[in-house]
Write a structure and sequence with these properties.
The chain is mainly beta. 12% of the residues lie in helices and 36% in strands. The chain has helices spanning 163-168, 187-197, 206-212, 262-272, and strands spanning 15-16, 28-29, 32-36, 40-44, 53-58, 62-68, 73-78, 84-88, 92-93, 101-103, 107-110, 122-125, 129-130, 132-136, 139-142, 147-149, 153-155, 180-181, 184-185, 215-216, 231-234, 237-243, 246-251, 256-261, 278-281. The two termini are 31 Å apart.
């Protein structure tokens, strides 16, 4: 059995305890659950700030940590999508009280008190999680004393009706390899975050999404067969069909999330890299 290293907390010197008997490792460790306390936490392949960003954990998300280093790195697995990597310890904290709400606006400021005129402590991105302890007029007060506009929050179990509409909110956001926030995200990050808002769990990378999501659609280049919400996959890339004439995607070609004419996008990407590899339909 071949295990995907992106999703398997195992190294030759250390592995998660639940993998005992499955993988070979010098030590097996029970993990400890931590929560992202920073606006976001970069997840890298190696414990170095110069290492490539593989994904990003948003504020309030949880990580099962199996090792910390004296240099300030934590090696663990994100609980939302099981991605494994190195995160800065300073971005993490003990779980504390349960999270209750998620950010439903593209970004929202966190104020130190009940006034929008106060300088905000930080800006939380769409999908970030917070623990609300009380509602005070227009503000939701979090367990760490932050004040957020309550209209920018939704209950943790709230579900958006249409993930394509969610994806369109990110139009103009910067393209960032490995990113998952409204300040920057990549093609599969856009798909994952948008689907999550609609209550659909999706793996992190485009090849994983291609294998896991929906059912295959026969596609020979005729865009007439494509429907809203279809996911179009190329090697290393994914886009969302908005309608019969447009494609939504985060693309390095324009370094942003764009709405591109569908026929033109298919021709441009095929000329630059490869033809469409598959189309998946979620419903």
């Amino acid at each position: 059995m071949t295990l995907d290293p992106r999703l398997t907390p195992a190294r030759p010197d250390l592995a998660a305890a639940h993998l005992r008997g499955v993988v070979d490792a010098a030590r097996f460790i029970e993990g400890k659950r931590w929560r992202v306390r920073a606006v976001s936490a970069p997840v890298r392949r190696e414990p170095s700030p110069e290492a490539s960003l593989t994904t990003e954990a948003l504020s309030g998300e949880t990580v099962m940590v199996y090792e910390t280093t004296p240099e300030g790195w934590a090696w663990g697995q994100l609980e939302a999508d099981l991605y494994v990597g190195w995160l800065p310890v300073g971005a993490l904290a003990a779980p504390g009280a349960p999270v209750t709400h998620k950010v439903a606006a593209l970004r929202t400021p966190v104020f130190p008190g009940p006034s929008i005129k106060l300088p905000p402590r930080e800006l939380l991105s769409f999908g970030s999680r917070v623990g609300v302890v009380e509602m005070r007029e227009r503000f939701a007060v979090t367990q760490d004393g932050g004040f957020l506009f309550s209209g920018h929050l939704a209950p943790l179990d709230a579900v958006e009706e249409d993930f394509v509409t969610v994806a369109a909110r990110f139009l103009g956001a910067a393209y960032l390899w490995g990113g998952r926030s409204s300040l920057g995200l990549d093609c599969s990050g856009l798909v994952q975050v948008s689907l999550a808002a609609a209550g659909i769990a999706a793996p992190r990378d485009s090849d994983m999404q291609e294998r896991a999501l929906g059912a295959p659609v026969a596609f020979d280049g005729d865009i007439a067969v494509l429907e809203r919400g279809d996911l179009v996959f190329w090697p290393g890339h994914v886009g969302i069909v908005e309608d019969g004439s447009t494609l939504l995607h985060a693309t390095a070609a324009f370094m942003s999330v764009v709405r591109e004419p569908l026929a033109g996008a298919l021709a441009r990407i095929e000329a630059a890299s490869a033809p469409v590899r598959s189309v998946r339909r979620l419903r």
